[in-house]
Amino acid sequence: MEDLTSEQLRAIWNQKKVPVLLRRGRGQRLRLRLPYRPDSFSWLRGDRRSIPEWDSVQRFWEVPQAWFNPLVTECLKEFKRVYIIQPYREEEKCAPACWSAMGHICECSCMGANHGSQYAGRGWKVISDAFATRSGEQKLACRLLAVS
Asked: Which of 109, 121, 126, 143 can pair with 1 through a Cys bridge, CB separation 3.0 to 4.6 Å?
């Protein structure tokens, strides 16, 4: 998965050759752009009960999130490639043992950034003396799946 700039993500979203699935997060419908085909609605709906909704202004389909996995499979079968844009959060790992350490040897994933600081800052969820974690801000990332 690649962390891209908003301009790069916009270019992928706006290109017309490869389907793009946009996962926006919990409780939000999946957005989809397909290369033009006259039967897009019937292809997309298939034998599903729900009806895809077309946004004629912004030119994308909205479908239930539950369609994500089947749609990826169907896009790969039909178009051989599909872009997936989705939110993610980088996760940091460290430990209270690192924060209270003496000396200069640091062997945790903070690479010494929190070493001996007595406190690594806000947002940490302490699991044990040897492990704490926190998530960064939400970003969008993109990956291209392809079959040969």
From this structure: 143
